[in-house]
Amino acid sequence: MTDQITTDPTKPSQRMRAGSMTLTFGPWIVAAVLLAVLPFIFTNNSSITIMNQMWITVIFALAYNMLLGQGGMLSFGHAVYAGVGGFACMHIMNASDFFAALPLPVLPVFGGLFGMGLAIIVGSFSTRSAGTVFAMISLGVGELIAACSVIIVAFFGGEEGVSGDRTYAMPFFGTEFLQQIEVYYLISGWVLISAALMYLWSRTPVGRMSNAVRDNPERAEFLGYSARWVRFYSFVASGFFAGVAGGLFAINYEILTEENLNTTSSGIILLVTFLGGVGFFFGPIIGAIAFTLLQTVLSLQTELWAFYAGTLFVATVMFFPGGLAGLMMMHVPVFRLGKARVLIRPYLKTLLPALIGILGLSALVEMVFHVRHAAYGDDEMTLFWTTFNSHDILPWVIAIGVTAVALGITRATAPALREAWNDANTAGGSA
Amino acid sequence: MDLILVNIIDGLVTGLLLFMLSAGLTLIFSMMGVLNFAHASFYMLGAYFAYQISIALGFWMGLLLAPLIVGVMGAGVERYGLRRVHQYGHVPELIFTFGLALLIEELVQFVWGKNQLPYSVPDVLNFTAFSIAGNSIPAYKIFMIFISIAIFIGLLYILTRTRVGMIIQAALSYPRTVEALGHNVPLIFMGVFGVGTALAGVAGVIAGPVLGTFPGMAFVLGSIVFVTIVIGGLGSLWGALVASLLIGWITTFAKSYNIEMADILNGIGIGTPENLDENLFRDFWTITSPQIADILPYILMVLILIFRPSGLFGKRHS
Hints:
Chain A is mainly α. Chain A has helices at residues 26-41, 45-71, 79-94, 96-100, 107-126, 131-151, 153-156, 180-203, 205-215, 217-222, 227-253, 263-276, 283-301, 305-319, 323-329, 332-336, 340-373, 394-424; strands at residues 162-163, 255-256, 380-383, 386-389. Helices cover 70% and strands 3% of the residues of chain A. In chain A, a hairpin with a 2-residue loop joins strand 3 and strand 4 (386-389). In chain A, helix 1 (26-41) runs antiparallel to helix 8 (180-203). Chain A starts with 25 loop residues before the first helix and ends in a 7-residue tail after the last helix. Chain B is an all-alpha fold. Chain B has a domain at 2-216. The A-B interface holds A 68, 72, 74, 76, 125, 128-129, 131-133, 135-137, 139-141, 143-144, 147-148, 151-154, 263, 267, 270-271, 274, 304, 306-307, 310-311, 313-314, 317-318, 321, 365, 369, 372-373 and B 35, 81, 84-85, 88, 90-92, 94-96, 98-100, 102-103, 106-107, 109-111, 113, 223, 226-227, 230, 234, 280, 282-284, 287, 291-292, 294-295, 298-299, 301-302, 305-306, 309, 318.
């Protein structure tokens, strides 16, 4: 057995090149500064509420992507881990003696531990295989626990949920978290910590093996790694961070209900993550920010926001499976080649009409909706800051005309954009 | 005894209805290897289309036309949606059908609103067929049973006795070889997808008047249909039948007999703890079978997946 090939770690050429553990600090410092400065830019209370929700979704989506993006496991019941973590935190809040001796910023750790505990139990049997079987078990377990929330009232509080008061915690350096802004900084701190931890996790050998198992479980097994245990570790870690997100939810809203557990929430987190892009670490962050904005801003404007979100989701799956992050990263080679300038004009020519066309389409959708569902006699509707009678012919002619022309221009200029794109991605050439 | 007979009929109706959905879904799965999350949405579309048609042309035209429209839509989804996403792999396919289910629900709310529609049993079938010890059995239930059984026999006949069925079966196992023999396999896939969704449409047409036609109807039945085909074994038609009937009967019986968890636990020799109100597990002790009737299928599925991942009749371990 002397001719067996062995690696010698002392020789640089044979050293295993795992992902380096060093963290490039740049983006993290920018993120930290941004998190600290944002409340000074958007000072009113409602935007701070939106940002709180956004950062909680960021943690949850990143945790979810540990499964979907990095481990290749599609879960339809991940809200359960966040929910159970949140409920556990709620009960800790209500256990007054213990809570009075606990600084509030530590509370999400307990949420994480409970989420992790549940993930250990479920993961012990669900991670045996990936793919469809895993997805089905996650769906089944998700439905089971969501249904239990109405039956097991002692823990889940039945229909009205469990509520508490975060201010009973031990003051943290004099802060009692009475105000929204104090909670904002608590959540921001946790976003930074958990995002950094999750990033570091993806650089560890376990995180790397998780990628390998996603791509080719058989080969990973031949290398001597148990695909099942690699999946299990990712699952448990993801459960922990989902629980942290749940704990932050408990602190922010001070109430948890069945809604935090059910399949709808699980579906939304899948939507958020995929929209942002599962292929890159920062994808879910973009997805969470975009989706929360869509949800809060658009839902103020129109009743149909869920319809638009659904359309956007299906369009993403069909045309841009890389999500928003994938779209952004597509442009990196262009910038490397220094040819970004070639793209500006074709982009303007195609995307501007496309945007107008999409707005026109949504105007048509809104008008159809108004004609069908508004109360009888209520013919007035307001759209894009103009008020008109939706039963007149003129607004329809304008909307259809603008949409058709804009989409026509988009169609006409699309080939030029494709050519410019190819040109921008070729080194040298005519530029 | 009489009550048992009534429950058997009720369970049979539920089970056969489930089977009409799960038959299409399991065929689609064995063909393309992807679970169609939007399957129950086509069931919902069937009910809504049938309602719209029944206003103008009556119930029977609805029964005839709505499944056809749904089938064409299903084929279109396969041709222009799934086939495109297929190149990205299985997980995006699952996510696509999931998004489609969301989108169809929103679309239905957009067109028909959020309230339940007044889609009702046709007058011809609105009478009592017979009664068992004072429990009347409506004729519509008997009609549902007959339609479902007729469809099952028809499906079995086409799949096992006709040339088309032979080609489909061959295409399921050896698509490459069948293609080499000169058959258009993508067309077969599209056809099977269309027929599967049309079956779901039929189920929607006949279930709409009884179970209610509202935007949540797909969600209510959707996950149960997955549970059914997972329990029966993915890709097995007989498994789908057995699992559908099993789930139909289990839920019906659990709902009509009030069994408390305390009785079961006492029965196997565990005493009820004193001062139950203080106990941590008090809710566990007072669980009754109607309470958990709707989650029994999920419990069954998780147990099956743990102990027999290929399902009751499944041949392969996916």
